[in-house]
Automatic annotation (TrEMBL), chains A, B, C, D:
Its cofactor is a divalent metal cation; Mg(2+). Binds 1 divalent metal cation per subunit. GO terms for molecular function: 3'-nucleotidase activity; 5'-nucleotidase activity; exopolyphosphatase activity; metal ion binding; nucleotide binding. This is 5'-nucleotidase SurE. InterPro entries: SurE (IPR030048), SurE-like_Pase/nucleotidase (IPR002828), SurE-like_sf (IPR036523). A divalent metal cation binds at D9, D10, S40, N92. It is found in: Cytoplasm. GO terms for cellular component: cytoplasm.
């Protein structure tokens, strides 16, 4: 039976993680290693300045006083004698669409699994209600990953519309859209009179064209985006070389 | 005169930031917005669950009780009436090579600048000694970015060997190498007898081929890697579609 | 029916809090406001540099992304239309004896209740096993506080031996002992070669005389110590005045 | 020459700490061990769940990635071969009056020194302007502590009016006043629509009678309050015993 490592960024007590666990129970031996509290927005942070505590919460659930990436690292290297076959992260409370993936701890947990040599899936529900729908999506993908052959070291970013399973219109392979830059911060005063600045939400999407994850979700489809972790902009290597030649 | 926004992840008091500031003084109007303490490894984290304090430390230096990405967001949206022309992050104390860029706060600060619509440069010294060398590299790139035309919304990851300027062999355009997965964690006991786990360093590089940043640094060259922030693995869209068709 | 506010420092998911809740259910209307994660050792810290999130976890349990003192402040000022009659903190996983009370978040939660004008009880189990015993102690004290008259704004620090209820030898009113100074730190190296220092545990008690809380626990009694929050050393006012007169 | 250990809670870069250092230079051999960032309000927190990094910033200044109490513990046990003779904490940016002392990191640093067996002084400026005045007060107390005999393991909480030295009316030995309970929290909404709660400042003092620290400062005097760290409410031992006898 396959070994499935589950994690998330909403913390070990999050309902989305519980829903993922229950949906995947029939599909392998499960271990859960998740942050001891909400670490949304942790991105790929790894904790290097202190050692981590790994707490056994029984029933195969472990918590770590660290980030989602810390959890996957310890889940792969510390909890089992053997490495997991697949890492599944989520179900995130809220979507991870477009440039969200750069900031998301859910996606980071999957990326860490992929960096450590496994295929990985990041699962997000674009809302907070129909976790069961997202659980069924996760089960169908994980089941298929077993019977079909997912290319090795695949990294899939999956977003699920927040609606009943019967209202899901299908699955779409998408590219990431782009939310665009956030608005100006919201300036407030604390009760002692000091200025503070809240980072503002993005007002409207800069790119949500028909082949994007935004468009798929909007139309009621599950969005599946293959991700890479190589940030080299290969197409620009030549241009930068030209620019550098002129410089020197 | 151009407006240059400087940030880093080692904190507002770091010598590398001071060296960058001094090297760039002749090249524009400078503003520094940096974390109030060491935030190395913060990756792209943005602080969304609390408002941020922006402290004016005089002489154009501001500190923020947040992450490198927070600093750039506030630097772009809060400190100036006009947007900066260029974001420069660093000089990091230590290299940001290969898959380091996924975890680095220095690179994240530059990425945030790029996401907000500007060109950006991440500067790292592969060591902790010759900040002056890295300062000269920064000055030559920023000077060139003015006279030549850096493509809009460029994002450059620059690493500098830790040696005197006279021993720098030149500049190379590179792709990112790959450190490979970290080793097993170092298990220790705290003084109260509880197990703890340190994330281990990477033992040896998995990909440091001749065109990588690793190889350039090893040979004594400044390494310049153009980065992208679109994580879509476009080449895999077709494969994943095939896999999905078989699934459904 | 009385309104009982419960909190702790081990976090909203801690078994000791659950045991306290169940033991006190018959004694009043309960509200639980506790940290979202383990905040042991937080002492009296209040969070003043950011606003707090209060999350309703259903069944009268709320969590706060802050310290134990934050929780009691919000529990008194935000959760109910009326103020609670009594604040009970715990059941702490481990004892709070002697000078522990200066560092303990459990005691701090009770102190905050007392500072806000209520009587308060800090409950700790000197171990991690017989929470049920400590629950029965809490129930008997809270029940008595109703029928008898606990002096207004009392603050009691209660420690319970980690043994079955049948083996508890009785209740003792005690003064705080004194653990004495901690030993030298344990010096370790992190995996990157940097020195780090763990604060060491205390080797042996400096004052555990017969009337102390240490002695009561050692002998199998529940220890009850009345605490004050006025730190003025009234007995020294005269001496310091003499010293000051000589100075000037 | 005496060994003086300096710390604070505003962080190693704070102007108040610098002013204290300069004022005390003639009075002994100085070592500074202070938090790497602002840790105001840390109270007596000690860091037990991770090892601490102690960074030598040259010139006798060290920083610690921990709390004020952590700093004093490491300053006493790690930086010198011999123990310091006196611990001085501050100069805090703002007063520590009345029940502030329960929450203050400045006072906690002094308390930690006293718990480790030394006399200790907590210095606070009731404002942010005349640090030099507070420096002169510190110098006169430390100078006197040498020539006269401060009782062993004394703990003094010193507050200085924010005015020029020439306008200081003298020194007063005081007891702590009492600010009283904080007002209701300030409820705000974050930019994503979620409720948040700021802890409110105290509206007016509940006890600022003529012999209190509040009154001394108001009248332009330096306030000196001897503190204790034994929280036992000795006067209540008898009453609680009576209450307990009725209970059982």
């Amino acid at each position: 039976m396959r070994r499935l490592l589950l994690s998330n960024d909403d913390g070990v007590h999050a309902p989305g993680l519980r829903a993922l666990y229950e949906a995947l129970l029939p599909y392998g031996r499960l271990r859960v290693v998740a942050p001891d509290r909400d670490r949304s927005g942790a991105s790929n942070s790894l904790t290097l300045d202190r050692p981590l505590a790994l707490t056994d919460r029984s029933n195969g659930f472990y918590s770590v006083d660290g980030t989602p990436a810390d959890c996957v690292y310890l889940g792969v290297n510390g909890v089992w004698e053997e490495r997991p076959d697949l890492v599944i992260s989520g179900i995130n409370h809220g979507g991870n669409l477009g440039d969200d993936v750069l900031y998301s701890g859910t996606v980071a947990a999957a990326m860490e699994g992929r960096n450590l040599g496994m295929s990985a899936i990041a699962m997000s529900l674009v809302g907070r209600r129909y976790f069961e729908t997202a659980g069924r999506v996760a089960a169908s993908l994980v089941g298929a990953a077993e019977s079909l052959s997912l290319p090795p070291r695949s990294l899939l970013n999956v977003n699920v519309p927040d609606r009943p399973w019967s209202e899901i219109r299908g699955f779409k392979v998408t590219r990431l859209g782009y939310r665009g830059p956030a608005s100006k911060p919201l300036q407030v005063q604390d009760p002692r009179g000091q200025d503070r600045y809240w980072i503002a939400p993005v007002s409207r999407n800069a790119d949500d064209g028909p082949d994007t994850d935004f468009a798929a979700i909007e139309a009621g489809f599950v969005s599946i985006t293959p991700l890479q972790t190589d940030l080299t902009r290969h197409a620009a290597l030549h241009d930068v070389q030209g620019w550098l030649d002129a410089l020197t």
